[in-house]
């Protein structure tokens, strides 16, 4: 493993940081999330056309950049620093890998080029608050309770007559970027209870019977929507015999690495802003950053953030470690954001202060993709750390280190 960044990666980081530094300050973030789309449309187009962010991990034959997922994770560390509100995560980290893995040749040719250029955004809709389970981050994602059961709840699918194809009915209550996405990838039950299985379906934003309502969320930079499907026409993604749970799990591992890098970027920026504040804030005639107790707290945060960054870099190289890296990064972000509020003193406790943007991101990400202890428990189960063989040929960390 070569941990050094290439010249192209360094240039991408520099350019992205420069653009976001000018266009994505705290005031711009607060203004963007209150728009109908939930993000700055002009900035999204600039990032898509100039840097090709949504197409980083898309093959060149489909109009993408053709980079590895590690490059997407590297870019997301910079978007995490700025808490960029955008459809990048839902589109590039969740939807694109599923279309690539499961879609037919015609579907890939039709969908991947506009997804890669940012002209089309997408969202993954799974029933209930079960995104982490569907992506196999916190538990086994074989069809079961996370998808609504099969008898009732969730989203149900039935085969229609040509040319209608499939019809969907049901509800997904917490769909990341579901209110603005031009394309929905909907996980639905089909085959009845006895032969129930999960398939993914494509639903366009203008499909009749589709109702999308933006929800009030703790973190406005992670907008969510309630998606209701009332006998909605849909197109099956790929083959009916495709391994949907396997594709979701593989997507989850890559998405976890991307999310870990994003959380590390946010934690690093929260720490940097806190250090800058304590250097200038004076108490008893001296900067509060000169007090030994404050130095110790900041040193502990620095070590935690750097350890999380190392784990995130390793996960970008080996996505099998995505769950553990995500747990460490989310914990680092939560701790750093909490300490940022404390060390900013009385002003830090005001809800309008910028430090709360990082606190809300930390809390919301753990609700969506965690919690941390379940991420670690599932990773331990997969690695066979507490008895039993490792799951899916996964070698325990200690064995790999010994090798």
Automatic annotation (TrEMBL):
Residue ranges constituting the Acyl-CoA dehydrogenase/oxidase N-terminal domain according to the UniProt record: 6-118
Span of domain Acyl-CoA dehydrogenase/oxidase C-terminal: 257-382
Keyword Lipid metabolism: no
Key words of the record: FAD, Flavoprotein, Oxidoreductase
Domain of life: Bacteria
Alphabetical list of InterPro entries matching this protein: Acyl-CoA_Oxase/DH_mid-dom_sf, AcylCo_DH-like_C, AcylCo_DH/oxidase_C, AcylCoA_DH/ox_N, AcylCoA_DH/ox_N_sf, AcylCoA_DH/oxidase_NM_dom_sf
Cofactor(s) the record lists: FAD
Similarity field: Belongs to the acyl-CoA dehydrogenase family.
UniProt name for this protein: Acyl-CoA/acyl-ACP dehydrogenase
């Amino acid at each position: 493993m070569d941990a050094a960044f290439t010249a192209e990666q360094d240039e991408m980081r520099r350019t992205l940081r420069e653009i976001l530094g000018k266009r994505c300050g705290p005031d711009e973030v607060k203004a963007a999330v209150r728009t109908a789309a939930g993000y700055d449309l002009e900035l999204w187009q600039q990032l898509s056309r100039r840097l090709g962010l949504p197409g980083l991990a898309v093959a060149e034959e489909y109009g993408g950049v053709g980079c590895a997922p590690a490059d997407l994770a590297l870019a997301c560390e910079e978007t995490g620093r700025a808490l960029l509100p955008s459809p990048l995560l839902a589109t590039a980290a969740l939807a694109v890998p599923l279309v690539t893995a499961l879609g037919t040749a015609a579907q890939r040719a039709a969908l991947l080029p506009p997804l890669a250029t940012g002209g089309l955004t997408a969202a993954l809709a799974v029933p209930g608050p079960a995104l982490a389970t569907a992506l196999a981050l916190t538990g086994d994602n074989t069809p079961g309770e996370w998808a609504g059961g099969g008898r009732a709840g969730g989203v149900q699918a039935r085969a229609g007559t040509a040319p209608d194809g499939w019809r969907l009915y049901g509800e997904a209550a917490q769909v990341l970027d579901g209110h603005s996405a031009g394309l929905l990838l909907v996980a639905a039950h089909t085959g009845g209870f006895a032969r129930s299985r999960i398939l993914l379906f494509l639903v366009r934003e203008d499909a009749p019977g589709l109702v999308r309502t933006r929800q009030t969320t703790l973190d406005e930079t992670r907008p969510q929507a309630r998606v209701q499907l009332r006998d909605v026409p849909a197109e099956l993604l790929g083959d009916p015999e495709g391994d949907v749970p396997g594709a979701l799990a593989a997507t989850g591992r890559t998405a976890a690495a991307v999310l870990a890098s994003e959380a590390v970027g946010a934690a690093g920026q929260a720490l940097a802003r806190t250090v800058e504040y304590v250097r200038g804030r004076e108490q008893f005639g001296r900067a509060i950053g000169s007090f030994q107790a404050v130095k110790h707290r900041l040193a502990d945060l620095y070590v935690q953030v750097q350890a999380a960054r190392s784990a995130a870099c390793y996960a970008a190289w080996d996505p099998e470690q995505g769950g553990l890296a995500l747990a460490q990064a989310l914990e680092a972000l939560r701790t750093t954001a909490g300490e940022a509020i404390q060390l900013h003193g009385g002003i830090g406790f005001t809800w309008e202060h910028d430090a709360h943007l990082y606190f809300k991101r930390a809390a919301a990400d753990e609700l969506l993709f965690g919690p941390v202890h379940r991420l670690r428990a599932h990773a331990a189960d997969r690695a066979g750390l507490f008895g039993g063989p490792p799951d899916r040929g996964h070698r325990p960390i200690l064995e790999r280190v010994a090798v």
